[in-house]
């Protein structure tokens, strides 16, 4: 999946956070809604101007960004 077909980062939209193209729905919001137990159908009903593919792209975008993040464990 080409996530950039559905996700854009523009400093003039939502302070440069990644959003669904053509909407002011952030990837962060999609992740928060899913983590709170909302279903994809719930999100599509609440935001009828986005698509199921855009939600999958938001998930893929988050996963790609986590893959490129380095974590440094802190010894306790």
Rounded to an integer in angstroms, the radius of gyration calculated over CA atoms is 14 Å
Unreliable stretches covering 5 or more consecutive residues: none
Provide the residue-averaged pLDDT.
94
The strand count comes to 2
Can you give the helix content as a percent range? 40-55%
Report how far apart the termini are. 40 Å
**Topology pattern, helix = H, strand = E:** EEHHH
Oligomer: single chain
**In this structure, how is the largest beta sheet organized?**
2 strands, antiparallel
Order of strands in the sheet with most strands? 1-2
What is the tally of helical segments?
3
Query: Tell me, what's the shape?
Result: globular
**How much strand?**
5-15%
Tell me what the structure shows.
- The chain is mainly alpha-helical.
- The chain is 42% helix and 5% strand.
- It has helices spanning 27-35, 40-46, 52-67, and strands at 7-8, 19-20.
- The protein has a two-stranded antiparallel ribbon.
- It is globular and about 45 Å long.
- The model has no long low-confidence stretch (mean pLDDT 94).
Nutshell version of this structure?
The protein has 76 residues and is mainly alpha-helical. It is built from three helices and two strands.
């Amino acid at each position: 999946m080409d996530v950039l077909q559905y996700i854009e980062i523009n400093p003039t939209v939502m302070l440069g956070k990644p959003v669904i193209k053509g909407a002011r729905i952030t990837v962060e919001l999609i992740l928060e809604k899913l983590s709170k137990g909302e279903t994809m159908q719930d999100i599509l009903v609440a935001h009828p101007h986005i698509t199921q593919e855009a939600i999958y792209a938001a998930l893929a975008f988050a996963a790609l960004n986590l893959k490129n993040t380095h974590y440094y464990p802190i010894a306790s």
